[in-house]
Design a protein that fits this description.
With about 550 residues, the protein is an alpha/beta fold. It folds into three domains: about 220 residues, FAD/NAD(P)-binding domain; about 110 residues, Succinate dehydrogenase/fumarate reductase flavoprotein, catalytic domain (Flavocytochrome C3, Chain A, domain 1, Alpha-Beta Complex), CATH 3.90.700.10; about 100 residues, Fumarate reductase/succinate dehydrogenase flavoprotein-like, C-terminal domain (Methane Monooxygenase Hydroxylase, Chain G, domain 1). α1 runs parallel beside α11 and α13 packs parallel to α15. Helix content is about 35%, strand content about 20%.
Amino acid sequence: MNSVDAQPVSAGRVFDVRVSDALVLGCGAAGYQAATAAARLGARVNLVGRARGASPFILGFNASLASGAPGDSTEQFYRDTFEGGYELGEPGLIRALVEQAAVAFAELSALGVPFEMREGRPALRHLSGSRYPRSVYVARGTGNAILRVVAREAKALGVEEHIGFRVISLLAFDGRVWGALAMHPRSGALTAFLAANTVLAMGGIGGIYRDSTYPVDVEGVSYTLALDAGAALRDMEFVQFEPTVVATPPGVRGMEMPTAMIGDGAVLKNTLGERFMCRYHPEGCEKQIEKARMALFIQKEIDEGRGTPAGAVYFDATVLSPDVLNSYVSHRQRLLKAGLDPQGQPVEVHPAAHSLMGGVRIDAHCRSDVPGLLVCGEAAGGLHGASRIAGNGAADAITFGRLAGLSAGEGRMRNDPVAQARVDAWVRGLFEGADGTPDDVTAAAGYVATVSGIMSASFGIRRGESSMDEGVRALEAVQARISARWTGSPFHPLARARSVALVALAVARSALARRESRGAHTRVDFPVRDDARWKCSSVVRLGGDGRLVVATAGSGRAD
């Protein structure tokens, strides 16, 4: 790797330059998979990110294995994913997932991830949305087990890790992406990472909703970075609400109760003691139903007065054996620490914003519309369609992280003085208007809180025209106030508020435009799925005036 230290930028600002063949932004499962795959091809790799994101909380991931459940196959996995996405998922992306997830599993197993085994075969959990059990897992915590192994492999392959850095901007000019500028938050040190290919793997929408399962280091910045670089987003209206998130006590509020427990026999009850899911889904009650519908029915029970005072229903795992409960080690430990034993009492749960089906538009090789920019994991859109079946979020990160790395690892970056001079000029421009005022800092926090309030009120599980129209107008008013004070510099105190408002508007305007109910998008005024007009995807771009442009693409005719 080349490093050119302490280059002047402006007004005493300095930054380092690091050159590699592949740059990976994000150090969760998708990022590490990308970094190791690229490094195996001989590429020089820089890995940059703040923290592990949601990856430590991975419970397992779907893979169609030769030793799997009788009757299961890659074709059944494809059907479950396509139908679970309400036939809106991109066929090429789904095909890549169902064929390559088993390859990723085999690689991780060979590296030493201690997947649970039964009678010499991988143990499989049956998750909601899948016809057969196919989720592989590690009993003591799948996410952390995978991260430990892939981080060790990255180090062995010579991947240079830069953990704790916050990505400020993609280096996008001359019609392509050349890397990214990042800053260490404690020291303020700046580094320009130049690369032939950049992989964006920084997760989903983050805190645009008041209640969510996202960790604090996932802020939705993936989508802002991509829009600013010229890439298109798709399917942003489809926000999946995890159906079974702990509502109380405060010590575990926001923790997911795994739907895998439902596969093991746990049930949902309202305050009348009814297994209400049997009313809505008599063929399987809580089982074999994808999460969007489960969340909708739970919210309906709460809205109609059959929920608890905490605005929740009961997740009853008391019927499970101690051995089964103990296989969810971290969840049971956290509940016990908060004073709640799931073996002896039900847990109060409610839906909370959990994942975004949409994201940056990619092909099956993870390439975006912009040369030099690859995207994977929840930052990318198109795989899940209108809803994501349980176990496919982690499968997405692990499988497409690897595929993105294979694509990124093909490029080689020359040590070009002209390119470095171009970067110097680009970074110099970013500092123009960087300094804000104390009032800007205070205003930024207020704007973010306002945006999350609007999104929770108008763009939750059940949506309607008047509420969404009011929400869009309120978001546009917030955006206008931010724009009046924001200088355009990504260093300005209002930059984060601008990002949050921009991503929220991408979700909101896409939702208002789709006049049907499908998957994770439910409209009370258009309650029926309309394939004749809406079997198509929304596409969002950033216009030259800084405003979002929303259109449609696909086989439907959204006129």
